Records
---
Amino acid sequence: MTPPPDSSDPTALPEQARAVAIVPAAGRGERLGFGVPKALVPVRGTALLTHAVRGLLNAGCVRHVVVAAPPSEVESTAALLRTEGLAADVVPGGADRTESVRLALRHATKVIPDARVVLVHDAARSFTPAEVIRAVVAAVAAGAPAVVPVLPMADTVKQVDFGGTVLATPDRAALRVVQTPQGFDLDTLTRAYAEAGDSATDDAGLVEKIGIPVATVPGHAYAMKITTPFDLAIAEFILSREEAQ
Ligand code: C5P
């Protein structure tokens, strides 16, 4: 009899249990001030998206990557990734993030019909360590329908009204900061996107809306979302440390 796969080591998983990763990068947000969409902002000469896709493929538990790019940038994004030797499909994104994930998910299920585990990953979390990606895939492979990496809150958080007056102080011990990749059993994510309507700031939020429990695994400081010039400076630091190792 074949022994069951060792889900604590996702790099040893059979092909079908390895993940298909979706990277929504179809936004045109230029808040970082480089005059290009955020996913194409360079860190040490290489686009955030390229770093993110490389991190997914190098984690050893991702079998395929699908990137959603702005419709006019599909060819250039595909060429960028190809130049870096990264095998990823690039599809046109939609009007908002949710639609981009939906379109990429549809493509993923077409090209990898036996996919069971899906990751949704922010291109802006470009330096997420392999151990986080593996922990998410391992938890889904072990039977969790939805998994998010989280960190404890370092700061106290206040709930305020529209005028900025404090309404409440939630117990910090019960709060977590959520990162990506978020991992799902394919049927769960497909159902969440079909049933939960269109609004959620993260994919796990859609799964919560349909009443399916979302598990957590430890995140990592390096999985931070790069949104400001300050974050970019930290990203340069992370990369220089990685390259020094
Ligand atoms: O604009 P916002 O910060 O909400 O975008 C979050 C993520 O969703 C970004 O990675 C962005 O590229 C992606 N996105 C997308 N398709 C859109 C809009 C945003 O894939 N139409």
Note: The pocket of cytidine-5'-monophosphate is lined by residues 24-27, 29, 39, 68, 93-97, 100, 122-124 (CB under 6 Å).
---
Amino acid sequence: MRFIIVTTNKWKVREFQEIFKPYNLRYRVEPLKTREIQSVDLKEVAIESVLYAYNILREPVMVEDAGLFIDALNGFPGPYSSYVYRTIGVKGVLKLLENLQDRKAKFVSIIAFYSPFTNLKTFTGEVEGRISYEARGESGFGFDPIFIPIDGDGRTFAEMNLEEKNKISHRGRSARKFAEWISSLRKLPPPYVDMSEEKNEVF
Ligand code: IMP
């Protein structure tokens, strides 16, 4: 099924393109700015965005919403991550954690997909890690320079290349689940084809 990835984030597009390569998916990217409701629930934000996008584009659509959840800050900035990034940024987050030993954090990614044939579907990916003491690396975007994934070798996401980050990232995990699911739809016969032989009998 052809679909549209709705995002204005060029870096996310590069990540999706790389993750989707082995799946031969048919999609295009639309840099439509969706309406993001303010909610403490990332999934709710993603669902509202995908329905908003579908109402405008009227084709199968996929959106992704992600957030950084820091343990010592009770999960902040979480769903407010993009606002926090735009306001206090990486430096501000490091300042909030100054002198704190507990630096545990996780990234969560929610992909929401909507088409009239499949209805609404969501896919979640998470990566556990910790916040570094200083920003390191030039690659990636957002909080990549201060996030050290637990499954890695001590480098921040921004010190990894695209493939290395995708292998273990929240987005890599949610996007692979989505890609597996949408690929599996192709293997099913279309629901409107009646396979029963009786139908073809002529009386
Ligand atoms: P969005 O709403 O999905 O664009 O994500 C909210 C904010 O979380 C972004 O503005 C980024 O600052 C941050 N973020 C989301 N995903 C990532 C990532 O993969 N690396 C670094 N920061 C991210």
Note: Strands lie at 3-6, 27-30, 61-70, 77-78, 104-115, 119-131, 147-149.
